[in-house]
Amino acid sequence: MKKIIAVLVGATALWAFSLSSELTPEEIIKKVDENMVSENRVTQSSMTIKGKRKNRVLTSKSWTIGSNQSFTEYLSPAREKGTKMLKLKEELWIYSPASDRTMRISGHMMRQSVMGSDLSYEDMMEDRELLEMYTAKLLGQEEIDGRKVFSLELNAKVDDVAYPKRKSWIDAERFVPLKEELFAKSGKLLKRVTMSNVKEVQGRWYPTKMIYKDMLKDGEGTMMEIISIQFNQEIPDYIFTKAALKK
Amino acid sequence: MLALKLAFKNLMAAGLRSWLNAIVLAFAYLLIIFFNGLMDGWNAQGKKQSIGWEFGQGQVWHPEYDPYDPFSLEDAHDLFPEVSASVPVLVRQASIYPSGRMQSVLLKGIPANQNLLELPTHNLVASNTGAIPVIIGERMASNSKLKVGDQLLMRWRDKNGTFDAQDIEIVSIFSTDVQSIDLGHVWIDLERLQGLTGYTNQATYLVSSTELEEGETGGWPHHTLGALLKPLDDLIATKKISSSIMYIILLGLALLAIFDTQVLSIFKRQKEIGTYVALGMTRWEVVRLFTFEGGAISILGAIMAAVIGTPLFYYLAKSGLQLPAASTENSGITIGDVMYPVFGLGLVLGTVVIIVLTSTLVSFWPAKRISKLDPTQALKGKIQ
Amino acid sequence: MIKFLIKGVIRDSTRSKFPIAIVAIGVFFTIFLSAFIGGVLQDAVEVNARFTTGHVKVSTLAFAENSTQAPLDLALLGMDSIKSGLQNEYPKMMWVPRVSFGGLLDVPDENGETKGQGPCTGMAADLLNTENGELERMNINKTIVEGRAPEKRGEALVSEKFAQKMKLKPGDVVTYFGSTMYGSMCFQNFTICGTISFGQQMLDKGGLIIDISDAQQMLDMEDGSTELLGYFEGGQYLDDEAMKIAQEFNARSTDSTDEFSSVMIPLKKQNQLEGLLNTSESMSEIMVGIFVLAMSIVLWNVGLLGGLRRYKEFGVRLALGEAKGKIYRSLLVEATVIGVVGSVFGVILGLAAAIPLQIYGMDVSEMVPSSNMMMPSVYRAAVTPSTVFMGFIPGIIAMVLGQALAGYGIYKRDTARLFKELEV
């Protein structure tokens, strides 16, 4: 018995040593970026927003190029079906089929919550390389749901980020985040995101279930599930035009 | 002159009834003056409070600033122009989270060392907990169930639009009649807000301590005190109408009493009238005498009102009238808990003139019957 | 005896016409004035009642606690059944749902794209049902600058200033953009049916008034409203009644562990109106007291006048051997008769003037410099049972008192001097 424990302890220590000696924090987030960031992606997802009175499920399909161009169409429920959003840099255009109107929404709306969820439009669109935005520091290794993770602290090196500080728990094998804590400049925890159901898509690992919790608000958070995701597709240019909204 | 003297003598001789009439008129005087004084006091006080807490002697606004459009706040800030003797205020939107619910507030940065406005901004430096010190008004505190010493979370955005959040501590709760700087407002030190948002040396509007001239506003639009106070003026004008209807009726009642007394005295004193005429007064002179008598009641009333009213009004103007709080909650109109009526000379004199004139008029009306009396019959005391 | 006296009163017009007229006028003044003062002093309370508090207000417990923020997500659902329950139980009250909301008002160009935008403060009420008096309660028709009130779904009133700024006129379309009660985005086109001047800066900036059914659909608030307001018949706030109804309702419906259970709050307990209401009550009592006093003096004069006119008559009656006490008593009975008749006339006149004033109000908007404010420039009287009672006090008591004092002179008359006085 003692032997077994000794072996286990030794093995764990060795494993930990081997991992930390192999990768710098920058390398870790670079590997995460390789999984998470793509030139473009087409996503179909559902969002479950838990409310005190009822839970709502919204499904939508999005075409995204980087973090500056995005087009989303809501598929259900009936109330939201056909609502389309186009984001071009700081401009947000929304088309509503019920009113047959295309409306421009001012830039600061971008950080508001999407459809009453715990996600902001920015959370939804985020597709910038972590490496480009943050410097990383390795805090240690932990275990989440039986998977070994690196815990990292990320501090922004550029001005225009939504969260100047993050803590990320990165799957040590697949290099996808399993948990993230997003902080304000002052150090206040704003959001907690937990990811699971990591699947392999086009050779990348990608978490397909994410739970966002706005830490400032009461409530149970919002669950986002990816029904399908495709990376680096041929997306025709016209999708990112106002004309496409009305189509 | 003789008529006037005689009129007073007769009046005194009539005793109690004259006094009662005078009392009614005195009430009319007192009520009219009181209500008008209350309105004027409200107006004066509202203005004073608004000037003291909010407007200063006028303001200079960023061209984009519109206090009724929260969306305008997004861009309504800039390096502010040099305006002498003014206090800069930077306005940002923020959210606070009292007991887990999000509540939007206007976050206003004002120099902690200012003493132009009555806001207790000197409290804004004191906090030993590390939380950001802020002050709020009483109404805001009661609506959001906050008290001094409470800490809660506030979230705002910096110049890049990035959310930031930190605990604030209520270091002081001020009590003001000016709702528009209380409800939904959180006041913070200007430099701190500039630091938190990154809008260094910027402001949204400037409050001036002097009346500014054209060209002294450094290019930003000037909002004069008169323009800022207009909504208050309009409201008072509306209220004045309701009180004037009330005192028209009151005056009507008092005049009815005089009219009634005149009818009575003319009826009762026919013999006397006959005697006057017999002694060589023309009938119109007798009419004048009786008219003066009626009018004199109003003068007597005025004297009586002065006796009662001077100490009473002095006291009221001094100690104020306790009014229940927050009658026009949310209307943005300044109304105090304690109203200090203002009794101006114009108001008092005007009221006296109106009452004396009208009571003389109603005294004349029954008195002119005398001119038709047959003096011989009158002398006999015959009822006609 | 009384019959005889009444005959006398009727036949001798100097004994009836003038005193009765004076009593009637005095009572009329007193009633009208006390009703008017009551109305004016309730003014501030009224504004609150009409727009925000109702005479009683039903909302969810959580909404009541956060009412200053008017949170849509805490709206009252299942409103219709609550409403019909209340309507059955208190058939004399009017129950009307209201929703207040806020978002953006967007004006399209010819391609349906945003031409201009502004913040919007919205109010929804049951406007299409004309029986509930909402148009009048909110003073809508009077404050319309151009066009008319909504007559069908999809129509909206917008603030005159917004319309001017955006160059809108009735018939144009605007889109409301905001959040549903669950936080989803909502868009709704409205055809402008009229423009309105609110007289309140925030609302003039971007006020929107729509029908409740549009709001419910738009805000995903089916069968819901943020508030359900109850109004007493006649538009008068009755405190005891309101307290009682609220107590009954809350005992049944409020569950302190369920923040979405409904709670009824009487006007007095909202917006710190209690103090105001109490002050206005005592103010109106003081005012009316002064008027009653003044009126009593007037009527006393009338009594004296009556007594004096009949100086000779009493002399004759005394000379004929009638007892002084009897004459005096007959005088008091006459005074009572005159007092009652005059008071009845006065009350009728007073009510005839005050009741229309209560129902229709007096529009003084033309006298106000910044006219057509939504905040009432219409004054109303407040007729209560005590108003009528107020009128009778000076009417009868003062008359009788006046006669009693005037008649006192009878006792002072010396029979021996009577004939000298009566010498013709």
SSE map:
The complex is a heterotrimer of chains A (247), B (384) and C (424).
Chain A: H1 2-22, H2 25-36, E1 40-49, E2 56-65, E3 69-76, E4 84-88, E5 91-96, E6 101-105, H3 121-125, H4 130-133, E7 134-144, E8 147-156, E9 165-171, E10 177-183, E11 189-201, E12 204-214, E13 222-231, H5 242-246
Antiparallel strand pairs in A: 1-2, 1-13, 2-3, 3-4, 4-5, 5-6, 7-8, 8-9, 9-10, 10-11, 11-12, 12-13
Chain B: H1 2-14, H2 16-55, E1 58-61, E2 78-79, E3 86-96, E4 103-110, E5 132-137, H3 138-143, E6 151-157, E7 163-174, E8 185-189, H4 190-197, E9 202-203, E10 205-208, E11 222-224, H5 225-268, H6 270-278, H7 283-319, E12 321-322, E13 338-339, H8 345-367, H9 375-380
Chain C: H1 2-11, H2 13-41, H3 43-53, E1 56-60, H4 61-65, E2 76-77, H5 79-89, E3 94-108, E4 114-125, H6 134-137, H7 140-143, E5 144-147, E6 155-159, H8 160-165, E7 173-179, E8 185-196, H9 201-206, E9 207-211, H10 212-218, E10 224-225, E11 227-231, H11 239-253, E12 262-266, H12 273-309, H13 311-319, H14 324-359, E13 362-363, E14 378-379, H15 385-412, H16 415-422
Parallel strand pairs in C: 4-9, 6-8
Antiparallel strand pairs in C: 1-11, 1-12, 2-10, 3-4, 3-7, 3-11, 5-8, 6-9, 7-8, 13-14
Helix pairs in contact in C: 1-2, 1-14, 2-12, 2-14, 2-15, 12-15, 13-16, 14-15
Count of alpha/pi helices of chain C:
16
Biggest chain contact: B-C, 50 and 64 residues
Tell me the strand order in the biggest sheet of chain C: 3-4-9-6-8-7
Order of helices and strands of chain C: HHHEHEHEEHHEEHEEHEHEEHEHHHEEHH
Let me know the average pLDDT of chain A. 84
Low-confidence stretches of chain A: none
| Uncertain parts of chain C | 368-376
Please give the alpha-carbon distance between the first and last residues of chain C. 30 Å
Question: How many structurally independent domains of chain C?
Answer: 2
CATH homolog superfamily of chain A: Lipoprotein localisation LolA/LolB/LppX
DSSP helical segment count of chain A: 5
Tell me the structural class of chain A: alpha+beta
* Strand arrangement, major sheet of chain A: 6-5-4-3-2-1-13-12-11-10-9-8-7
Tertiary shape of chain A = globular
Q: How many beta strands in the DSSP annotation of chain A? A: 13
Q: Can you count the beta strands of chain C?
A: 14
Rg of chain A (CA only): 20 Å
Kindly state the percentage of residues in helix of chain A: 10-25%
Coarse shape of chain C: elongated
